[in-house]
Amino acid sequence: MKAKKSLGQNFLSNTKILSKIIDKSEILNSDIILEIGPGTGNLTKELMKKNPKKIIVVEKDNNLSKILINKYGNKIHVINNDILQCYKDFKDNKPMKVFGNLPYNISTQILTSFIKLDNMEKIFSNFTFIFQKEVADRILAEENTKNYGRLTILTSWKMNCERILDIDPKYFFPKPKVWSTLVVLTPKLKIEKINNPKNLEHITNIFFNQRRKMIKKPMKQLFANYGVVAKKLDIDLNLRPQNLSKNKYLEICQIYENLNK
């Protein structure tokens, strides 16, 4: 099967890595599985060995969808669609476990779409995703590092994130030019209240579009009384965006929302 570059297809076939993905997930026979972009079904096959209650796969490629149906029949439920068009449609009696070797070109969009769902923790129990290593580094970054930024803050707001392993390009077909990383993301049961995730995106965008500048400038863009807000939050306006903690950005967002009700 020839991979389509337009869909960001890189198929993972190494059985040892596939086994690590499955073992880390501790799949039970009562679990409902959602797999994003199963491709030729290599991971699907390993998931089936654990005998979960149900496996749903979302595959945008028409040809691959037909292959999966012919290969596995009614053992899986194949949805021939773009995950970005149907990610809101999955609800069951218990939270689902999600797997995906995500296309590099839309991986952050897929992740943030799930994060912005209301009651995400009631719909999904965890996400086992393969990202481009550069994206994983941004998700998992700590403050005061170059990778710390918008994606770090948005993800950490709702998720606990764990790096499992980095994956050599040689284990994919076609072979990508960059390393990949397996990450497990688990929804937090309690999160800081934010009325609209778009506000957090807006705020972090303003800050990190000027990450080399002191935060006095983005604070002035957000608040007429920025000095009062900075004092209330105990923020040094001479700091850079990467110096503020994740929780501090959530506090800024809460004040921003209260002022813009």
Briefly, what is this?
This protein has helices at 15-25, 42-48, 62-72, 83-86, 107-115, 120-123, 133-139, 150-158, 197-208, 216-222, 226-232, 246-259; strands at residues 11-12, 32-36, 54-58, 77-79, 96-101, 124-132, 159-167, 172-173, 180-187. With 261 residues, the chain is an alpha/beta fold. 33% of the residues are buried.
Dominant shape: elongated
Q: Name the average pLDDT.
A: 92
Main beta-sheet strand count, sense and barrel state: 7 strands, mixed
* Structure annotation, total helices: 12
Output the CATH homologous superfamily of the largest domain.
Vaccinia Virus protein VP39
Which CATH class of the largest domain? Alpha Beta
Q: Secondary-structure element sequence?
A: EHEHEHEHEHHEHHEEEHHHH
Number of structurally distinct domains: 2
Question: How do the strands line up in the largest sheet?
Answer: 4-3-2-5-6-9-7
Task: Specify the CATH architecture of the largest domain.
Answer: 3-Layer(aba) Sandwich
- Give the radius of gyration: 20 Å
Q: Give me the count of strands.
A: 9
Runs in which pLDDT lies below 50 for 5 or more consecutive residues are 2-8
N- to C-terminal distance: 53 Å
Strand content: 15-25%
User: The CATH topology of the largest domain is what?
Assistant: Rossmann fold
User: Percent range for helical residues?
Assistant: 25-40%
**Which secondary-structure class do the elements indicate?**
alpha/beta
